[in-house]
Write a structure and sequence with these properties.
Elements (H helix, E strand, L loop, with lengths): L2 H19 L15 H13 L9 H17 L7 H8 L7 H14 L13 H12 L12 H9 L5 H11 L6 H16 L13 H13 L7 H15 L19 H13 L17 H7 L9 H18 L16 H20 L6 H24 L3 H16 L16 E4 L2 E5 L52 E4 L3 E4 L9 E5 L9 E9 L5 E7 L5 E5 L5 E3 L6 E6 L5 E4 L7 E5 L4 E8 L6 E4 L4 E3 L5 E6 L19 E5 L9 E2 L13 E10 L2 E11 L4 H12 L3 E4 L6 E5 L2 E2 L8 E6 L18 E7 L1
Helix pairs in contact: 2-3, 3-14, 4-6, 4-14, 5-6, 6-8, 7-8, 7-9, 8-9, 8-10, 10-11, 10-12, 12-13, 12-14, 15-16, 15-17, 16-17
């Protein structure tokens, strides 16, 4: 026997020895303080009794209690949380916290042989735990600090070191979709595993027959679409019932670690059977005088304090699997892209994150009451949006990603603070026809503007001192700006040929589908799930095909996609759908009123926001779809803010003005501002309130003091300074035009994408640069897609 294999089996024997002799029936009370008091009391009673539970009807609640106990034991480990702990937590009732995920990630990097700089671990144990843990915390196992763990597993799978390598590698590769090489390896491993099944007994003859058969069943349950897998699985389940199942509900027979039943084998086989859609809450083979497998596991109290970490982990995910199957779930919970077992915990987790965020807003001592109210409302909006997304998710992978995106959105909610007692006019500098306003930062705060709890000093506000540089100022990158709801889902359609990949690694082997360029009425539509940059440096979308439901990654940008629904001030449309459209009496497009044929023109009163798919209300009060595949806007209401400037001319001076809070800007040659941005101490001042909205959310809101006679653009500049917003605009005076706020940028001429402004609810007929404010005016900035 090879040295590595000997060490592996020795460690297994030692672990099982400790499990078997050190507390399988422990009666120690679990007194974890952070467990719900009622559950803790019941579990303490169960643990103290240390005997079988008489009421079999309470098995379901007992499992829930056991899961809570196991998760409590895991959560108490703090910084010692590892990959398997993370997997247990993500399937638990409360999900996993960001801090726990961070601990798990550090543990994976440290303990996985390949990621820590070594070779593939013994029999793939380290790899299967790492992949499960990484996916559980929303990390991509194909790109972990530049290393591809999946590729290493595929390499081992093509020449497995042992029988256990086959099941471990197969389970790891079956947690998600990782490209063609991974899929080929899965097929090969499944075939090998089926070929190893004893044709007489239907079992697998490993060093421990119960354990290895259970692992084989688990791996096959994640690959029922592979040739022969379903039949082999059915045969195995029957064989377990006939040859290994005992009257007490446990499993033993043939060669096992100790020649008899043990808690480890019971846990592993119960998990495997539940993964194969067996209801382990009832006796197998319909024998009422037998004990149900999950009951036998409960009777051994494997999640009680004092048991080994390995037993607590495996028992906890076994209970989670059993509950998932009993509640109607199909397949293994470890198949993250096939089942939605993590969804309940992710929903609870995002709600807890919202409560934490709201508490930090409430506790902000420098925020005004109105600012707190706005921020709290925004958190509620984000929560409602993401709970809706999570509820619609059909896989654990999607739920994990949406929960993480929602928490990120919470973190980007800012709270407006009162203006400093002694406002300071920031230095304005010019460089290469770009005007940059560098906003002063407080010396008492190093927090970014994205933190809702950041503070600033009103008594000590140093002015930034510009430095001379010959380098041009870099315009703020859209991807480098953080703002609320950057991953807000929107529906787009393809303008040209686009390609869909399995992962963010855009290689030929990962290509799953090519969508050819189509006519407008036939363009494929996608739901944008998230935006990111892949390792090749491309800005990409993670999308879902609206028609097929297929998900994947594709290049992003206006060259490839446009919003599929109108959101501009359209006043007239033409029907372009060959089959026409319908007019409805209700905004949800129910209560049909009449059918309208192709080429008909309709007058529009307004565009109505309706989730991701907008509607249009006609002048007759009825509603139609705003989908660009069905209608064409032939007339759009004109205003100074939605008229796109073409090539800059002498009248606009060809300049772009940027309010930039980033320290990366390197301004030169300071000059005085041409318009008052913040009031001086001796000037008469007025107060205006400003709110900025995009994607249905409020980016920022609050009040600002400016000099009497200031324009709306002056106030916006001062507000951007106060809030730490990135603001860009072109021209001045009558030609001034806002081109971007915090990464929401105006599109090219004719796209109607850009910023609209209103004062006291009415859109002025002039530019922001010439609109003179009065005391108490309220400015609203809205991003039009």
């Amino acid at each position: 026997m090879k040295r590595k294999q000997f060490l592996y089996w020795f460690s297994i024997v030692l672990e099982i020895f400790l499990i078997f002799f050190s507390g399988g029936n422990s009666s120690r009370a679990d007194t974890a303080s952070d467990v719900n008091s009622a559950i803790s009391t019941g579990l303490t009673e169960i643990a103290q009794q240390g005997s079988q539970i008489d009421s079999r009807a309470d098995t379901a609640s007992d499992v829930n209690s056991a899961i809570s106990t196991g998760l409590t034991e895991i959560a108490q480990k703090g910084s010692q949380i590892d990959a398997w702990d993370a997997t247990c937590l993500v399937f638990g009732d409360n999900g996993i916290t960001d801090l726990q995920a961070q601990y798990a990630y550090k543990s994976i990097l440290k303990n996985n042989d390949f990621l820590s700089g070594g070779s593939q671990g013994l029999n793939g144990i380290s790899d299967v735990s790492a992949v499960n843990g990484l996916v559980a915390i929303g990390k991509d196992p194909t790109n972990v600090n530049g290393k591809n763990l999946v590729a290493d597993i595929v390499k081992d799978a093509n020449n497995p070191a042992s029988d256990y390598s086959i099941v471990n590698d197969l389970e790891a590769l079956s947690t998600g979709s990782y490209g063609q090489a991974s899929e080929t390896a899965r097929t090969s491993l499944t075939k090998k595993l089926i070929g190893m099944q004893d044709q007489k007994t239907g079992l697998w003859n490993g060093f421990d027959k119960v354990d290895y058969t259970a692992r084989a069943i688990l791996a096959l349950s994640m690959n029922t679409n592979q040739p022969g897998a379903a039949d082999a699985l059915n045969t195995a389940v029957k064989a377990v019932s006939n040859h290994l199942y005992q009257e007490n509900g446990g499993f033993a027979g043939g060669n096992t670690m100790f020649g008899a039943e043990n808690a480890y084998d019971d846990v592993t086989m119960t998990n495997a059977l539940a993964s194969a859609s067996v209801n382990v809450y009832v006796p197998l083979k319909g024998k009422t005088d037998y004990v149900a497998p999950v009951q036998r596991v409960l009777d051994q109290h494997p999640v009680s304090a004092g048991n080994s970490a390995m037993l607590i982990q495996q028992a906890t995910w076994t209970f989670e699997q059993a509950r998932f199957t009993r509640n109607g779930g199909k397949g293994s919970i470890f198949a993250f892209n096939q089942t939605d077992a993590a969804k309940p915990g992710e929903i609870v987790s995002i709600k807890a994150a919202a409560i934490t965020k709201k508490q930090s807003i409430i506790n902000d001592p420098q925020a005004t009451a109105s600012a707190k109210s706005d921020a709290l409302n925004l958190v509620d909006q984000i929560l409602a949006t993401y709970v809706s997304k999570l509820s619609a998710d059909s896989t654990s992978s999607a739920a994990i990603a949406d929960r993480a995106a929602g928490v990120t959105a919470f973190n980007h909610v800012t709270v407006s603070h009162a203006a400093p007692a002694t406002p300071v006019t920031p230095p304005t500098v010019t460089n290469n026809n770009v005007t940059v306003v560098n906003n002063p930062a407080s010396s008492s705060s190093a927090s970014s503007s994205s933190s809702a709890t950041s503070t600033s000093s009103s008594s000590s506000v140093p002015i930034s001192t510009p430095t001379v540089s010959g380098k041009p100022v870099k315009k703020a990158s859209h991807r480098s700006i953080v703002y609320a709801l950057t991953t807000h889902r929107s529906i787009v359609y393809a303008l040209t040929t686009v390609k869909l990949y399995r992962s963010s690694n855009f290689t030929k082997s990962n290509l799953t589908k090519t969508y050819k360029k189509r006519a407008r009425i036939n363009r494929p539509m996608f739901l944008v799930i998230s935006q990111q940059t892949n390792k090749q440096g491309h800005a990409i979308y993670r999308v879902k095909d609206i028609n097929s439901g297929k998900t994947g990654y594709t290049l992003s940008g206006s060259k490839y996609f446009a919003h599929a629904y109108y959101s501009a001030k359209v006043t007239r449309i033409k029907v372009i759908n060959p089959k026409g459209i319908n007019e409805y009496g209700k905004v949800n497009l129910t209560s049909k009123k009449r059918h309208v044929k192709k080429n008909a023109s309709l007058n529009v009163r307004k565009v109505v926001n309706y989730g991701r798919s907008n509607r249009m209300q006609l002048t007759n009060g009825r509603y139609i779809t705003a989908n660009k595949k069905f209608i064409l806007a032939t007339k759009i209401k004109k205003s100074s803010q939605n008229t796109r400037p073409s090539t800059p001319t002498a009248t606009t001076t060809g300049t772009t003005t940027t309010t930039n809070n980033s320290p990366s800007a390197t301004p030169t040659l300071p000059v005085a501002p041409t318009n008052p941005v913040t009031p001086s101490n001796d000037a008469k001042t007025i107060t205006t309130t400003i709110s900025i909205h995009a994607d249905g959310a409020t980016i920022a809101s609050g009040s600002i003091k400016v000099n009497s006679g200031a324009s709306a653009l002056d106030a916006l500049q001062a507000f951007a300074q106060q809030q730490g917003l990135a603001l860009t605009y072109t021209g001045s005076g009558a030609t001034a035009y806002v081109t971007g706020i915090n990464g929401y940028n105006a599109g090219p001429a004719g796209t109607m994408t850009g910023w609209l402004y209103s004062v006291n609810g009415t859109e002025p007929g002039s530019s922001m640069g010439v609109y003179t404010l009065k005391d108490g005016d309220s400015i609203s900035m809205t991003y039009n897609k």
